[in-house]
Design brief:
Layout (H helix, E strand, L loop, with lengths): L4 H8 L6 H13 L4 E8 L8 E7 L6 H8 L17 H4 E10 L2 E8 L7 E4 L7 E9 L12 H11 L1 H10 L4 E8 L12 E6 L7 E5 L10 E9 L4 E9 L2 E4 L12 E8 L22 H19 L1 H17 L17 H20 L6 H31 L6
Amino acid sequence: MDIEPKYAVKLLFTSTTFLQIYFEAIANAFDAEASEVSIHISTDGQISPSHLEITIKDNGVGFTDGRFDRFSNLKEPSDPYHKGLGRLVYLQYFSNVNIISIYDDMKRSFTFSNSFKGDSETEVVSERDQLGTVLRFNGFLGDRLKSYDDLKPYALKEQILEHFLPFFYTRKKAGRDFKIIIELEINRNHKKQKKLFPDETSITVADIPQFKEKSIRDISLHAFHEISMSYFLTEGIGEKRQMTAFSIDGRTVPINLLPPNAIPPNHSAIFLFESALFSGKSDSSRQRLLLPESISESALFRLLRREMSVVLNDTLPIIKRKNTETRKRFEERYPHLFGFFEEDTVGIIDKDEAIEIAQRRFFSDQKRVLESDLLDEATFRKSLEVSSRTLTEYILYRELIISKRLRNPIYQR
């Protein structure tokens, strides 16, 4: 049965990004035991480029017969680490990918396109030829790029570092060096622009932080598997980087567990969570975690937030001090909301958000009492509580108005 690649992309990848081209090419290179990868981007520099070509080279073992067979056929992968679908993303953005690969003493050449049928040309080459693969992407299919960051070397460096951080850290711990070079070339024969310039950067083991690790076990979540939490906290002028993610099969799947202002200025915090529970549990585009039915997402996130909060409070005393001051202020200015404020806050409390959540919970209790048809003992006690809170709120509001009037010169005459 033939499967049209373009149709398969639309069916299997509902939310692709241009960055996945780099991610899949890099993942395939390291899967082929590469230690060096180079990314060369040639463009006219326009957000709607008329010329855009990407060349990605690696020094891996190349497209052997077995690897080419897996590339040519959509088959169920032999392990949960591989999805077997990533290459289809190439055709979402480019009409052709010309591939030349040196393996053993052979060279394989073929073009991956919507009409690809699994054919390639092979020839014997000199043993002096270096092993590796070259992918040349051409024929850009989009109307425009989403952002210039899809081409800027330093922006790509950050995205690649984040996406492959667990894999890179594993290599660092094992003492295995690697290098990724990213180069941007602007074709000056095209129309001039002011937002993109030739540039070059690289990623090496020196860019990978040294994490601390902590094991998390909660039998209410799972009786056997534990979760490994790797974290990196640092302080320095200009530091401001926050990241929380699941580590799944060597890649990160971001999760929103750390609010934007949860970390003090000039601080960075990275948290990665890895477990056998998550192995192979990402969607086809590796952007979302697919938890087993036996695991409650809310319970899992609550557990992770609690553990993150412990680490942040122990490591960054400024967070604990600020939160103590904020809670004291809440007790003084919003006593009618006492008990409604969240207890499992991660990092610095967002005052406005905390008050908003507490008010919603208070209104929810009010609504439940007002809409109750039966006045049983529990509802009666809840109605007394709500009434006392409402009265406290009124008194506080009245005192605030009186105080403002007394301070106003108009009322002092």
